[in-house]
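Re: duplicated header lines in exported structure tokens

Our pipeline writes sequence and tokens for each protein into one text file. With two proteins the header for the second block appears twice in some exports. Here is an export where it did not happen, for reference. First protein block:
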Amino acid sequence: MAQDLGFAAITRNSMDVSADRDFVLDFVYAASVAMIHLSRLAEDWILYSSEEFGWLELADAVTSGSSLMPQKKNPDSLELIRGKSGRVLGCLTSLMMTMKGLPNDVQSRMQEDKVPLFEAADQLAGSLEMARVVIQSVRLNPAVPAAAAEEAGWWPPTWRRRWPAPATLSPGAPTAGRFVLESVRSGKKPADWTPEDMQRFATGIHRRFRGAARPQARYAVARNPRRHRPSIRSCRAGRRPPAPL
């Protein structure tokens, strides 16, 4: 019979054949993983298409307008993909709960595997098709993230007299690498460096910058963050932040 049906071999355990649903679980698990990746991609594109980022623009065919803000594009297609992932994950959980308490024999309750199987297949196929349409119709704006990268290191001019720009001693920068290497060679801790010595690595370091390396200064800032944090109004006015202790 196995030869007539084209099977590769016969099974020696008929109970395992009638009670096995691992192939269904494997498919629904793979569909769940695929939906997780689609959901994360949709979340990224929803964020990058927002007004705050503007890195890409979704087509009108995959968005909807707002009754209060007609100029707004709601990313409904991506939001639906994000929501469909929950249904597929629910199918996997449902099937696992159906199978976990059954003995290794034929059970009529195992016919419930069809509902989560077909549901997961349909939702995955629809989400992949929707993602394809979104990707083919999207319009990228590469100039926007490029301009944002250039402005990332900008600080108000009045701040630079006391504080170095963040990129000056950022991890991975050449100046930061030389500073760390020299600290290891000389055995100095951050608090042991004088402002004059640190200016060899970054000319923008002011004499008050040394206080930031003191444990007492860090403790004071942690205890009184509002006192040592510049206000939004002062930042907009271009005034320098309060000097560390």
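Second protein block, exported in the same file:
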Amino acid sequence: MGKNDALRAYRSKRDLGRSGEPSGGRRLPGRRPAFVVQKHSARSLHDDFRLEADGVLKSWSVPKGPSADPAVKRLAVPTEDHPLDCENFEGVIP
């Protein structure tokens, strides 16, 4: 599956012109792969965990947030892949 196929679900769920969310960008040469934890307020406040792989950010929603204690297990729900330029996105999505 190519990057465009991986981002099809992401783009289909958003009005990118209205929301201001990134539509997809390329990784700058020489940069290390991204690892991102973002606070996200949608239906409820939660954290999003993202790892760069295959040209996109593979994403999981973590409803109770990450734990500093490795013995504490937390649910992580897979969500659609996100474009690499979501790594630094901040904003209010209408």
